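Q&A log
Question type: sequence-to-structure
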Amino acid sequence: MFRLDAVARYRVQAGKYITIEPKKSATPEEVRLFLFGSAMGALLHQRGMLAIHASSVEKGLKGFLIAGSSSSGKSTLAAGLLEKGYSIISDDISVIGFEKEDGNFIYPGIPHLKLWKDVLLHLNERLDLEKVRPKLEKYKKPTALKMKLDPVKLDKIIILLIKNTSGYHFEEVRGSEKFNLLRENTYRVQFIDKLSRTESHFRSLTRLVAKTRIFRVERPSSPLKVREFTTFVEDNIFII
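Response status: OK
Response body:
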């Protein structure tokens, strides 16, 4: 159970049920935002599923995870890749599955991207979209729903970082650092120990890093150059 004083109280049980007690002053958009965020994260952990704080995209039957902390540019990069012909698998929370023997897979999520106003303007997108919260200049951009809701095979993971210098930089992560980075980027990782999922989470991360290439990617905090950064990531990481 957790409480957001101005929005609602959420109770998540057995990986199956979410009970919501909204505040009278809360808007439906605010209640839904945290339902599909922290509440859904708790439910996924209760089910023993591996949820990464990442957006994910697909092209050519290959799935790519874009992980990073809040405001690192996950959804922004996904929007740039959408413009270049990629499909959106999920935004902000990406769930990894291991039910198949030939690799790791990404489960499709809710078909939209949450984008700040400056990103929409930069990409010449319309602004008559639903806000994620009434007082926030962040909007939900619907994306096409995949015709088949099958899991997509995971090819590579990138971890986004912000730097105060110009230019872009990337390097492949190896060894135990792969594990540590993915643990840091597990969605609501603080829930793991409280739900007694530490051991199963360790096994899931170990399996994931054993079969997946991971890259650390640094970008400047400004100026915003979505298309330039998208091309850099695609040319240097995704198509190799």
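Response note: DSSP finds seven helices and 13 strands in the chain.
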